[in-house]
Amino acid sequence: MTRESETTADILVAGGGLGGVAAALAALRRGRSVLLVEETDWIGGQLTSQGVPPDEHTWIEQFGCTRSYRRLRDAIRDHYRTWYPLTDEARARPDLNPGEGRVSRLCHEPRVAAAVLDAMVAPYVSAGRLRILYGHKVVGATVDGDRVRAVTVEAADGHRLEVAAPYVLDATELGDLLPLTGAEHVTGFESRHDTGEPSAPDEAQPANMQAFSWVFAIEHRAGEDHTIDRPAGYRDWARYQPPKWPNPLLSLSAPDPRTLETVARAFTPNPAPAPFVADQRADPGDKELWAFRRVLSRNLYRPGFAASDVTIVNWPMIDYLPGPLIGVSAEERDKHLAGARELSMSMLYWLQTEAPREDGGTGWPGLRLRGDVLGTTDGLAKAPYIRESRRIEARYRIVEQDLSLTVRGEAGAVAYPDSVGIGMYRIDLHPSTGGDTYIDVASSPFQIPLGALLPVRLRNLLPAAKNIGTTHITNGCYRLHPVEWNIGEVAGTLAAHCLDNGLEPEQVHADGARLRAFRSELVADGVELAWPEIRGY
């Protein structure tokens, strides 16, 4: 039987991903009490429980993120310097990249990021001002007119808790609070008629969403056999060829996201050291799959410490396309989740048994799952990697024309008078459940407008993750790690600011003096509001 109890906090943050953690920390720094709800037993979302090293822009080591996000990055590096037997040369590198991965200048084990985030929130837990409900999900809400009065959360054992808070922040991975609160929101593709976006389709496609992926971690032990049991659906996945895909999904070939030309990827476990600089502007880094998202490089540690590198498999070959997780029944959702897990294990089995090697042989049976890196026993991440969420209908909607390099050219992205942060990434959309292939559009370094964080109606609900007022297209560059953190930090700061000053978010946004005061508060806290003069890619 479901038991119910009640609790209160100044701010409820639903979802412990990067946006949720940033929101909680911002509010806690301002003396507020926070209740944070997280479905898994790790905070950090895409960085930790979903197993994805940070996707970041070219200039991240110099500028282009908030001070608190930089503190997170520095703390991850310090963790390795403090506890790992790095070589003297590696330890001395100010830009230490523990995995020497090509996707980012900071590739690291998800469990290290989880430990660092735990340390960042620990003082507030000790002080009794932060309560984290692990293993809980939001299941209901009480709404009175245009205000959310309470949110119901549920544990795995069925126990329910009703949480009342003056401000409710939705940092869930799929925007779960939006339908529960009746917030106006959208899903999938908007139409070109609606948004005017060059990359949008003629007709809206609300059920057509980016693929999600269930990532896993592996190492390679030469001479050993760690072949897993063949997944039940392996033969079906081995034959599966998605629409507009040049070959079966289980292969080492896939379209280049930027040109759509078919490109054969290299795969060489534990390659010899090779100099490179992770730079998304010059090279997305995905042509050599082992080094692409490598999170531990044995070459950086004292001889004999690590027998193998560890790499994260988050490749095009495990993008799950048969259906979305939003707008379907619970049974259909569970089917897709199970299907994504089976696809990922089928990819591993194919690599172990059938993948072509350069020496003419087939398979790498020495590939071994490293679930410990992800905090699991089965080798898969704790949760699927989510690229696209429900999105609020906002007071300002960010469209492709605001930041597309082709559209904006030398003018750069639109400068918003209500900017509350910045970000940069190409408009990077993976293949979608409706059969579309990649949409990958060059973009200009962009700003985050406060209006995109304000729902058109609800007065005390704020988005704090990938659910702000973007479109399907612009979600492709606002969904990355430092941008999600910036969004969450602003949402938490805004909620605390409103409580401190007896205001509502719309009052802050609508009044020039109040908006300037709020933006000044953000700047003082290390939030960058504008870019220097640089060109996108």
TrEMBL record:
Pfam families: FAD_oxidored. Gene3D superfamilies: FAD/NAD(P)-binding domain. Signal peptide: none annotated. InterPro entries: FAD/NAD-bd_sf (IPR036188), NadB (IPR005288). This is FAD-dependent oxidoreductase. It comes from Nonomuraea antimicrobica.
